[in-house]
Structures are given as C-alpha cells and as structure tokens.
Amino acid sequence: MSDQKDASVAAIIAAKRAEIAAKLARFQQPNGQPSSPGTATPATVHRPPTTPARTTTYQEPVNKYKAPARSSNVTPLPLPPSARPGAQATGGGLNLLEMQRMIAEAKERLATGTPTLHRATATGFRAPESGATKAAPQIALDESGNIDLKAMLDKGIIPKRETAISKVSQRQAPAKKEAKALKIEPHAVEDFKDTTKNPYFDPSLNAKAAPSMRRSRPLKFVQPGKYIQQANQERAKAQLEKLKQITAESVKKAGMETEMDISDKAIKKDPPPAVEWWDAPLLPNKTYSQLDDAPVNPDNLSSLVTLYVHHPIPIRPPSEQNGPPVLRSLMLTKKERKKLRRQRRQEAQKEKQDKIRLGLLPPDPPKVKISNLMRVLGDEAIQDPTKIEAKVRKEMEMRQKKHEMANEQRKLTPEERRAKILNKLKENQKISNEVAVFKINNCSHPKHRFKIETNAQQHQLSGMVIVNPRCSIVIVEGGPKGIKAYKKLMLRRIDWNDMPPPKHGSTEDSGMDLDMYRGNGQEENRCFLVWEGQVKNKAFRKFTWRTFASEKMARDELSKWHVEHYWDAAALANDEELAAKQHRLVNL
C-alpha cells in the first residue's frame, strides 16, 4: 500500500512539473504560439519503472480569452535555468531546487524593495530602462499582514491615473502652507485659572458655546445731512486753528507772548528743600553733594537711631473735619405737614381740656362770632341785639390783634435775620473753598461795578476784580452756595450791554475813565466763565477792585497772591473757545 501511495504522489508531482514547464514555454514564445522545433521543449515525464501504477494524463485547459498581441518592444521573460535551451531537466522535469531558489530570490526582492528586472504591463513584461535603477519603495502592509493598496496609493507608490481634469485642478490649486500647531504650555493654563494672577477669570461662570451663525445685521441708511455736518465741523475746527495762529502772531508782534502752561500742573508749589529734615542730622555739611566725601561716623548714629518709631501726624479725613454730619429732618409733602399740625393741635387741646376738668385752669370764655351769636347767647341776644353785636365784634377784633401780636413776637428782627443769613453762609464756607473766574470785555461801568461788589459782600465772597483795556477778569472765592448765586448774577441777571451815562457827577469821581474802556460801541459786551473748581486755601482776604493800564502790571499784581495762572487762563482763551465750553462749565 505504501508503494502505491508513493507512486501516486510522484505521478501528481510530475504532472504539476509538466504543467509549469508548459506555461513557461508558452510565456517565452510570442503570441502564445507553441515553441518551434529549434526551441527547447519541456522534458517528457517518465513513469517510475519500479512499480506499475495508474497513469495520469493532464490536458491543458483551453483559454477562451486570449491576450492581445504583444508589441515588438516587449522583451520576453527569461526562462529559469531548467527551461532554458541547453538546460537538462533533472528527475524528468523542472528542478525543484531551482524553483525554490527563484521563489526565495523573489521574496528577498520584495522584502528589501529591490526592483525586478522586468516590469509587468497590460501588454506583457517590459524591461527596465537603461541607467541607474531607483530603489523601490517599501510595500505597505495592514494589521493582518496583507498588502494595503490604499496606503500605497496615498504614499504615491502606486501612481494615480492622470486625467485632464485632475491636471487642471492640480495646476490651479494654490500651494498649501504648513499650519503651525498652537502650543499651549501647561503653566500658562495654570496661570490663567489662578485668580490671584488673572483678576478677569471667574470660575463660577461656565463657558458657553459660540452661536453657529452670526446674526444678520439690519441695513443702516445714512441719515440726511450727516456728512454735511461732519464737513461743517471740520471747517469750524480749521477756522478755529487759523484764529489761534493769527492771535499768536499778533501777540508775538506786540511783544506780549506768554507761552505758559495753564493746566492744573501750572499751579505754583513750594520748591523742595535743599536737605530733608530726616537727613539733616546725618549730613555734617548739610548738603547732599559731599555725602560720599564725608563718611558718617557710626558712633554718632547711636543718638540718632533709637528703638522708638516715628509715627506721622494723624490727619483727619475730610468727612470728619467739620464734625459729624448734620442730620436733616425728613422732607414732608404739604398734605403730610397739615396732617401733623392737626394732630399736634388736637393733642394740645385735649390736654388743656383735661386740666380744665381737674380745675387746674379756668374755663375759656365762649368764642362768640356773628355766625353763632343766636346759638350761644340765646334770649340775651334778643333783649338788646345792637349792644350784643357791638360786644361780639369787639371781642373778634381783640382775638385778631392777639394773634397778630403773637406772630410778631415770633418773628426775627432785621439784625437777627442778617445774623442768621451770615451764619448760614459761614457754615457753608466750611464745606469747601470754591473758586470761580469770569472774563468780561468791559466791566468799568458804575452800574456793573455796584452789582459786582455788593453781591460779593452780601454772599461773603473774597477775591479781586482786574480791569484792563484788553479784558477784565473777576475772581471770587467762597462757599458753594455763595458761588452758585454769584454765577447766576454774572451769567444771567446782569445785562452787560446796558451802560447808560451816569446821572450824578462825572466819571472822575469814581476814579475811572469810561471813554477809555467803552470802545467803539460795535463790539458786544459779554461775560464768560473761564474756570471753576476747589482750592485748599483761599488766596484773598477780602474783595477788592484794581485797574491797570498794561497786562504786565495786572499779572504782577496777581502774582503777589500766587494766582497769576488765573490771568494766563483768561488771556489765552478767546471768546469762541469760551462760548463753546460755557454749557459744560455752567452745568458742572
């Protein structure tokens, strides 16, 4: 049995060898024709002579789909050594060792990526072109070990089919820029979530997703006259700059140029001392220049540096300087005040009635009037009505006089009333020191001077009036209430263009020449508020009036009181600028 089995296996192997040899011979011949007599034919398969076995014949299957005719430039695949002409088959067919060697070489080429000598095409096997051979790319394999065609297509190992459309899109496609990945450092995230380092981070708020689409904005049409208004503003601004330039040039020609800062920084302050008081004991020459040249003796520091701590002088806050705040009574409406008065009078009347019942007070006489005459007196009024009527009318007059006398007694005298008003103004001045600076074209008229001086005295204001041919300024200092009333006087109540001729005497009695300051009569006389604010201390003790012929004299007079910056602010500001800022300054 074993001999028969070996014989059948050998026969099958021999048949397979013959089949492979026939295929190789067919590939070698062009157009798949059988080999010519001059070519080598596969070796004949011999049966083993040892044991008689059943012969197995193999018939090659007919190929219905023949390959198309190969072109002339296709090189035939070289045959293995066993199938080449002149090669002898060993063991009656293709040498098994040669086939194993060829398979091993093919596997090695696939593993190392070495290209084969012949490349298969749609029309046959094409020989490689002459020249240096390029190393074949690595074959991509998937997880299961099979060839991954998609990966090879993506890497470019398998060439893509080029079409006209793909070439056009490839030509039009812009070059892609390499996007740099945003690198977020871990310590930056920690600092962002740390509330001590990031005061804008609120951990209680959760981030919400951004809306998927941006809301469409409605159409906004340009309002008529918008660009016309902008153009007018630009023209006005250009005109204002031109006026400033013209004014500066005229000032330069007149030799009265004053290039000074008129802001809050220009307020005069005390210069710093040459040596601070805490450094004076440590400096032998009382100067900082010789500090390095004259070293300090450590023995002298024992008396200067002690264990005591120097505490600064405590300064009371502004809210506590004037004592506790005054508690004002609740403001009631007229109806509520009447109700409280009625309740208070009812309680007083009830208390009086209780005392009369207890005998502590005598009963009041009947309050007889013409309207209740018959009801109160009765028969007595009938006996002598004329006498009773005269008596009732006299009592009515007595009650009216008594009421009026009580009211007069409660009234304040004129002296007490003035003292009350002055006390209120003085208490109001303790709140803050307000300052207001006014600029007037001409305030030399006696009528205007009387109103300016009288109202300043009545409101307990201090300051100074400077009269100059160029302009006049009025500086007033006082409490908020007095400054508010004085602003109404200067900006609303006084008609500055009303300058009638004096009725009594001449202008020489008043010490001023009206013709000098009246001008040609065409310029409008106006008053502007230049500046208003608060100061720490008052500069003037009383309200005075000064007249100067030059600007330098006026400025020197104000420099004595350290308020020359008021004159600079009023002189450098023109009427157009002040008129534009009046609404903002007055409503502060």
From TrEMBL:
Residues 25-91, 194-216, 334-364 are annotated as: Disordered. Residues 198-413 form the Pre-mRNA-splicing factor domain. GO terms for cellular component: U4/U6 x U5 tri-snRNP complex. GO terms for biological process: mRNA splicing, via spliceosome. Pfam families: PRP3, Prp3_C. Residues 39-57 have a biased composition (Low complexity). This is Uncharacterized protein. The lineage of its organism: Eukaryota, Fungi, Fungi incertae sedis, Mucoromycota, Mucoromycotina.
